[in-house]
Amino acid sequence: MTAVVWYDDFTLAAKAKVTLEHAALSGGAEAQWNVRPWQLDMLNRGAVADEALAEAVGAELVLVVTATTHTVPSCLKDWLESWVACRRVSHAALGALFASPDDETAPPLVTQLKQFAQHHGLNFLFNQDVLARVHLNHSARKGTSHESIA
Hints:
5 helices
């Protein structure tokens, strides 16, 4: 399984990577996560964005991990639009992890990504939901039913 992670904070991205890998191991998953991290500020470089897009066409999850980015940058929105147009995984999910899960107010980025996901028929995950729902998605795919994880 593949996850493309866009991040603005390396430590938070590393924690997200470990969390996804741990979820696969502790859940008894047959497949491990192939986590491909990309720094958000690299989206302004066309070649890097294109390389990330090439990796993302088969991704089950695109995850935006942020500590300081509070709204969706236009370059990320453009990239996400390109990803949606060429993705090969019909059950893909878009997720958001932000640095303050205890904060009652999620940054506008979460709402913007959720609206984007709904508009494009993607599953949407954020913060604590990511671990549980990614495991459910994988379990559903292994069985005969394909339950929605949205």
